[in-house]
Amino acid sequence: MKINNQYSSYRDAYQTQMNQEQTVKDKSVIKKEPVQIDLSTTSQQIRFSDEVVDIDQSQKIANIKKAISEGTYDVSAKQIANKMFDQLKG
Fold first, then answer.
1. How many CB atoms lie within 10 A of CB 61?
2. Whose C-alpha in 7, 16, 51, 59 is 20 to 30 A from the C-alpha of 23?
3. Which residues have CB under 8 Å from 39's CB, separation 6+?
4. Contact in structure between 50 and 42 (CB atoms under 8 Å)
């Protein structure tokens, strides 16, 4: 059985398409420029206030861990219920 070169046109079309896709990928990489972002003063204040909250939370967590290890931590069901209710209210 003789195989003619009938599939070469498909192969050539595939290779052409792959070369075009690679060229597009190469161009998109080259054309990317850095983006400069300027934060407003409000967003900067929010950002810094979150850092302060994190510090307060870490101290609070450390105190709770200490109380648990000493066996003096008291869980108040009423406080938990109030917090859950506040969260549900929004």
1. 10
2. 7
3. 47
4. no
State pTM to two decimals: 0.32
Which residue, among 54, 67, 59, 53, has the nearest Cα to 76 in the 3D structure?
Answer: 67
Report the chain's terminal Cα–Cα distance, integer Å.
78
3-state secondary structure (DSSP) of residue 21 = helix
Per-residue pLDDT of the chain (90 residues; tens, 9 = 90+): 556 666 667 777 778 888 877 766 665 555 667 778 777 887 777 777 766 656 678 888 899 999 999 999 888 899 999 999 998 987
Determine the residue type at 10: Y
Q: Token pair for residue 89? A: 């209210």
